[in-house]
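Ligand: flavin-adenine dinucleotide. Inputs:
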Amino acid sequence: MSDPAVLVVGAGPAGLSAAHELAVRGVTGVLVVDREASAGGIPRHCDHTGFGVQDLHRAMTGPAYARRLADRAAGAGVRIRLSTTVAEVGADGSATLVGPDGIDVVRPRAVLLATGARERPRSARLVPGDRPAGVFTTGQLQQWVLLAGLPVGRRAVVVGAEHVAYSAVLTLRHAGVRTVAMVTSLPRHQTVPAFAWATRLGLRVPLRTSSRVASLDGHGRLEAVDVEDLVTGVVDRIPADTVVFTGEWVPDHELARRGGVVTDPATLGPRTDGWGRTSRPGILAAGNLVHPGETAGLAALGGRAAGRRLAETFQRATVRPAVGSLLTVAPPLVSVVPALVDPDDLPDRLLLRTAAFTDRRLVVARQSGREIGRHRLRHSVPNRSLGVPGAVVGAMVSDGGPVELTLI
Amino acid sequence: MHPGGDVEFDVAVVGAGVVGCAIARHLARAGASVVVLDRAVDVGDGTSKANTAILHTGFDTEPGSLESQLVVRGRSLLADYAAAAGIAVEPTGALLVAWDDEQEARLPSLVDKAAANGCADVVLVGAEEVRAREPHLGPAARSGVSVPGEWVIDPWSVTLAFATEAVGIGTVLRLGTPVVGLDVGDEGLEVRTPDDVVRARWLVNAAGLGADRIDEMLGHRDFTVTPRRGQLIVFDKLARRLLTRILLPVPTARSKGVLVSPTTWGNVLLGPTAEDLEDRTDTATTAEGMARLLADGRRILPDLGAEEVTATYAGLRAATEPGGYQIHIHGDQRFVSVGGIRSTGLTSAMAVAEHVAGLLDGAVATWSGRPVATPPPVMPPLGERQVRPMRDPVRIAADPAYGTALCHCEQVSRGEVRDACHASVPATDLGGVRRRTRAMNGRCQGFYCGAEVVALVAAETGTRATTLTRVPR
Ligand SMILES: Cc1cc2nc3c(=O)[nH]c(=O)nc-3n(C[C@H](O)[C@H](O)[C@H](O)COP(=O)(O)OP(=O)(O)OC[C@H]3O[C@@H](n4cnc5c(N)ncnc54)[C@H](O)[C@@H]3O)c2cc1C
Ligand SMILES: Cc1cc2nc3c(=O)[nH]c(=O)nc-3n(C[C@H](O)[C@H](O)[C@H](O)COP(=O)(O)OP(=O)(O)OC[C@H]3O[C@@H](n4cnc5c(N)ncnc54)[C@H](O)[C@@H]3O)c2cc1C
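Predicted complex:
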């Protein structure tokens, strides 16, 4: 096949939005490759509404949103190749594509990685016990129920209490499974109060706060989940045939890391500037690969920003790597995306994450001990998006050292 | 199958682990008609599926012991067999590392022991050289011993290849069939299962953890079995760059200790623990076990801690009292018992089979068929360094199903899963699919592919998804 100008890896919200932006800004030869048989990424199997609000300014279901983004990109002239895996992105900028038609090696001018993030599965959380059936992540559960129509079980425990955990409860309900408990190690739920109330009172799902899953019981099939109260140390055995591990996002960074891209120790995704540029010239990254666990809308907006700047600079000889000053965070903040910022080219927003609940809402930016900006957050809830305008670091000095963000 | 009816088989083997399958293959090639019975629904579903996958040299076995002889012989037989069958082997070699004065002081005796076991290439390595060879080792690493012959192998394909070859030359595989009783008759033995009686001239007990129980059915108490659990942690493929060889500890009498090893699937393995249990089915991991392993891992390869864990599992070694290989023939009962194949059975299986055949030498004349010399079956390439179907343009051109990804993390195509369900020793459950293809064994553990794999396996095997995933009624 002929070499694309830009290869976008992943046809989720980020990849499709980036490709669309490139095409409408006049870059021809944009190819989006996805290993799944249909485009759209995770929203393909999120059968509830609320998608599109941030980027398309209207609410729709996940599958409708997925179709919409794919049609829009295709309409702008983007080629979308499905059922094709990008198996490798080489140090020389070449990419190996594998699909039913065979194996192709292409040499695009730029590669944009938009491979998304997954939830950390039970094994990686080192939950002890045997290896019974009936253990899920939300992503697996949604596909199980909504795409494949497979049977689940009767009684479930949901691990986590952020947005995605509440959507797991709904998917379980749809599949005729009763959620008998939600478990979070934090002292409170981390979703919007309306979801939490509706689940607790409407669906009668008890939430066990400050608790963790101590082990799983069952040999062939799950029989019970042992839940430990972290305050009292008491362990309760909750009979259940199904457990869903939600959240704890891990970026799908394999291609990025094998391609030599520097990753951020806090997000585990590629370290980027506000336009998705990474440490490697010609390799960009966007979406949940860069900021795991954010909404589809933010992924789409990130893809759009990366696409825009790439289109604007595409005529230059090379696609340059990320440059800028490093942003750092102090506890309870754990991460900031982008981590590299150029004061002459500020990103629209910075995405922060906190590890713990806190009453502190004021984000203060300091460079070499000098305060350069502040912004009040509407909330500071863990496992939720905390967005602050890029302007909060607007007063930074180019070579004045790292900028630290703290909550006071 | 009427009571008092004719003998149906020359040999019945109890246990379709790596040892039982190797024995069945060997005897079938010698002309015997063989039946293998196992209570599990797949071959290699016991200890043989959950080990550290090392092709041992026997350098640390007791010199002159039966185990030492059979490991050395088995290693060479299996290395050749694996090469012919296309089973992944990586000649990594091992570096045994000392971490304190006491361990360091024991290194020369290990070299001597290795020499006594015929491993002349096992030599001392100075601390600097140790670090040069494995720069990611923790700061407390001292000098060590190089064991170039310790390699890693794909253990699942080994058992499967033996079974496939045996079935190809007429062996009857009866899975899902527990042996519940044995009676000695005039012409042979009656092997009782919950549904019927199988008659065979000879019986071989290769029941692993259940071997003492089978022995007891015929009145023998030569050994007792204690399950010794070994828990393991599998790290992400991105950790593979942290080591090039197997990193061994200084062994103790009870176990070979906690090691870090590359796997042929491209991951890194940390383990195993060694815990004596009562329950012969307790393959659960524990919080204490995982914590101990992680502590050891941090000491051995500190950077391991930054990588994701892909899987955890536990295997049960069949530790016997008395220890060592317990291979006994009871000619009056036409019974051979193969017990105590504790920590080296993957490596030694082919030599154990040869040894058992030697014990049965006098019976060979009675085998109902002629010897056959078929080549080993060619197994699907599961090794990360082999050319797997999704990287093989010729196979994809011949059948696009080999270019259609099903499991993304492990890069397994739909074609491979389909094939596994229709093989001569087919996968009938999800574990069987995992071991034949690697599907769902990767870092996402089914986040992306779980539903599609189950749907495909249900369609290909004709088994309902409810059954495959054991959904309670
Ligand atoms: C279970 C679940 C429920 C969610 N619910 C909501 C919600 O209700 N509302 C909301 O706003 N957000 C929700 N999210 C988050 C939302 O799905 C993500 O923010 C969004 O999908 C991220 O978009 P992305 O493009 O970065 O990645 P993804 O949507 O994950 O897309 C990545 C794409 O890359 C492809 N890919 C990866 N590697 C390769 C490769 N090597 N070769 C080819 N293709 C590859 C994948 O197949 C996938 O299609 C949910 C997420 C999950 C997991
Ligand atoms: C943690 C660990 C690490 C190891 N590492 C290595 C290594 O690196 N290299 C190496 O060479 N070896 C290693 N080993 C040892 C090796 O795995 C074993 O020696 C080998 O798998 C034993 O095979 P087997 O066929 O005897 O037993 P098994 O595989 O357990 O087979 C016995 C079979 O008998 C069946 N059975 C039992 N009772 C009955 C009954 N009554 N009726 C019907 N069926 C019955 C069981 O279902 C089982 O399938 C390790 C072992 C462990 C546990």
